[in-house]
Write a structure and sequence with these properties.
Two copies of one chain form a homodimer.
Chain A: E1 2-4, H1 7-16, E2 19-21, E3 27-28, E4 34-37, E5 45-62, E6 66-71, E7 81-82, E8 88-89, H2 90-95, E9 98-99, E10 104-106, E11 116-117, E12 122-132, H3 133-139, E13 147-151, E14 157-160, H4 166-175
Chain A binds a DNA duplex (24 and 24 nucleotides) through strand 3 and helix 4.
Chain lengths: 195, 195
Amino acid sequence: KIALENAELWQQFHQIGTEMIITKLGRRMFPTLKVNLSGLDPNTKYFVLLDLVLADDSRFRFNAGWLRSGKAEPQWPSRIYTHPDSPATGAQWMKHEVSFQKVKLTNNTMDQQGHLVLTSMHKYVPRIHVIAASDYASLHWGMPTTINTAAFNVCSFIAVTAYANDRMTQLKIDNNPFAKGFRENGQLRVKKRQL
Amino acid sequence: KIALENAELWQQFHQIGTEMIITKLGRRMFPTLKVNLSGLDPNTKYFVLLDLVLADDSRFRFNAGWLRSGKAEPQWPSRIYTHPDSPATGAQWMKHEVSFQKVKLTNNTMDQQGHLVLTSMHKYVPRIHVIAASDYASLHWGMPTTINTAAFNVCSFIAVTAYANDRMTQLKIDNNPFAKGFRENGQLRVKKRQL
DNA sequence: CCCTTTTCACCTAGGTGGTAAGAT
DNA sequence: ATCTTACCACCTAGGTGAAAAGGG
């Protein structure tokens, strides 16, 4: 009913240990979460939501590999990202893949722009929720509602402010079009900096 | 209740005779239509719509100035552009200016992307409609509904495939950030082309 | 002759990891 | 020592009018 569209790419990252950069102003996720929805009523309107919940009650540190390092810090209630196409009919959701390209992650607890707030060195797992529009209002009242939820373990990641694992950095550079400037084009590309 | 936000800029264009480029793939409007809404119920949800209707039952031609030149061609029913923030509460609409930056104009009658289809050498006037979400469904059934509509004569324009009036071209270059490359920076900027 | 289409250089806007300096 | 921040060069993506070519 909620299927990961780009599972193969996520799997490559998962094998190495996915890391996601978080910044004060907000950073996109790469890979992007993309899902295919099915089994919805074509004429009912739905909201599609994303949240990120702690995947492990530990803090992590990196030393040749990711190691547990004490208890996780207490988390604020997770923010929820509403897919910008919401609300839309089941037919519209099922027609194309649903991409969460625009969601941004931040470590700024004072963020005012609705980005998802995470704690660095902690591990999160993305969850996607599909809820009928008629039940959506009830969410904010804590009323019981019917929600279809899927958690994607293969998409779990550790939030970082700078990449720890060089192999993760390289995998990002190789696959993210925006990082093309760091790919080696035949000969080694050296980046310069003047101060 | 529906007030033009950037009326001064539009007035400058109107004095010369506003032209808007239309292309097969769709072209934005410049200036952008921006309005401030007021008097809405903060808790009611509304749709905000834009359409472009014939402002003059003539075809036009340019010869040192814009001249009427025969009858207007018969028009298809005008397409309607729904502001992408729709539906939203009155409070949300009134909080910020409402910009129609992303609407695109085309001369392609076969357009499949929902762009507004116009006929070159014809004059149009933009209209903005605010309608309660509860009445929105009735629109498609031709039922009587309450719609708050405003037409902006100062924003009327002639659709063209290339600018006719050099002063109009210059005014676009001077004000549209995307045309900065054509501004004269101290010395005359000459653009080259190899074939 | 007048209008339309295509392609281009030149912009705006914003998403990358690198790098060095800052913070704890 | 370890993690965070600020700024940078280098990209993607796409909005401009100019110019030349196409079409009736």
